[in-house]
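Revision sheet: structure tokens.
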Amino acid sequence: MTHRTRIKLCGMTRLEDVRCAVASGADALGFVFFPASPRYVGPAQAAELMRAVPPFVSAVGLFVNATQQQVEETVRATSISMLQFHGDETLEQCCTLAAAVNLPFLRAIRVKPTMTGADLLKYDKDYRAASTLFSGLLLDTWVDSYGGSGKVFNWSLIPEELAPRVVLSGGLSVQNATDAVLRVRPYAVDVSSGIELQKGIKDSARIRDFVAAVRLADSNSPDTSKAAERTSP
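Predicted:
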């Protein structure tokens, strides 16, 4: 059976972008609650945007070194269904924050050039052992700051056995989305700057084209080819 790669579009700040993302087939929308980010939205603004998010499309809250109070207040004010920790939070802090609001969480790992596949497997193993609320790793490109770099990392570092569980991020765009999915076969992809006109302002054509590029990779999966072979005369 062909795997449908899930798509998360992150950094939503405008109602028209939310509506376009939903209409284009996004599975999840990301809202950035890090005040230093150009894509920051406060809880009240995010709550208004989330009113346009229909059932079965997830609203993900991205936090960077937030306090428990900040996370709790944001969750109460919005309809976030998943947390994403993108800062220097320790394993214990991620688990504590998620438990405080009883929501599943993603742990963003900024992949350094010196990292190995064994390092990524250990992250996954340690987080899964520590909390039943851990949903998976989001793999992003290393930068000496918080936020997207617009650059890809070495995808070959991702172990084959880990790839089906991860969210692939970092420098994805319309131009490389198909190749990324075909090469890595992640559970999901995450994009922000690759669908923007400028930081925080999405481009409707790029949103639609990005989703189409991911779906093109899905339609060219090995499973699809094998199925075609079995049904051919």
